[in-house]
Amino acid sequence: MGTKVFQIDVDGEARDIRPTYAAAMARLAELTTSDPRSEATARAIKQAFPVEEVARHCDPKCFLFRAVASAGRGQQRIAVHDLDAGVSENTLVDWIHCLTELDPTYVVLFGLYLVKGGFETKRKAAAFVGDEIAIAVRSSRRVGVSDHEIVERLRAVELRTAGMTFVPDGVVDPGSFADGLADLVKSRFLQIADELGI
């Protein structure tokens, strides 16, 4: 694939185009924060979301942007365009459902946000983290996504968002990996929560 750009789409309306996924997510968060209907919630999330605390584990920017954008209204997604497509070809190559895609790093950080903001105890947040991942894996399988595809999608998300590494090189048994993902992510959440003393 050649040169890619990322275009924000809200309720089917094409909006701003940005050169990177992170820049598109930043713009989506900015749109949410500037909307009077979601401004207060978006700003509260931004204040309590763990950013500096987790910087050694991942680049937290995309995850902060996702959390803030989740306060917005309507269906929000990002279109990926390949600018090197031929003149007669459609440049659209993918849709990223940026607020709902399975992303273990986001789930870990959102769990930390729940504890840090005083919304949940660590025990309840850990249960939330495990349940979110388990439900996402089951839902993917239910709609026909293979375990191999789950692994490949997770790897792509980790690279695109500069997230934590959950998918090791050379996964031999995708089914076993997918089965154990909820426990793996929950364990990472507890580890970081302990490090932060929350």
Summarize the structure.
The protein is α+β, with helices and mostly antiparallel strands and 198 residues long.
How would you characterize the largest beta sheet?
4 strands, antiparallel
Number of strands: 4
C-alpha Rg (nearest Å): 17 Å
Mean pLDDT: 92
Element order: H for helix, E for strand: EEHHHEEHHHH
Give the low-confidence spans: none
User: Numbering strands along the chain, what is their spatial order in the largest sheet?
Assistant: 2-1-3-4
Helix percent band:
40-55%
Indicate the structural class.
Answer: alpha+beta
Strand content: 5-15%
Shape: globular
Our count of helices gives 7
Distance between the termini: 43 Å
Descriptive account of the structure:
- With about 200 residues, the chain is α+β, with helices and mostly antiparallel strands.
- Helices cover about 55% and strands about 15% of the residues.
- The protein has a four-stranded antiparallel sheet, with helices on one face.
- Strand 1 and strand 2 form a beta hairpin.
- The protein is globular, with a radius of gyration of 17 Å.
Write the layout of secondary structure elements.
Layout: E1 4-10, E2 13-18, H1 21-33, H2 39-48, H3 61-69, E3 76-82, E4 92-96, H4 104-116, H5 122-142, H6 147-161, H7 174-196
Antiparallel strand pairs: 1-2, 1-3, 3-4
Helix pairs in contact: 1-3, 2-3, 4-5, 4-7, 5-7, 6-7
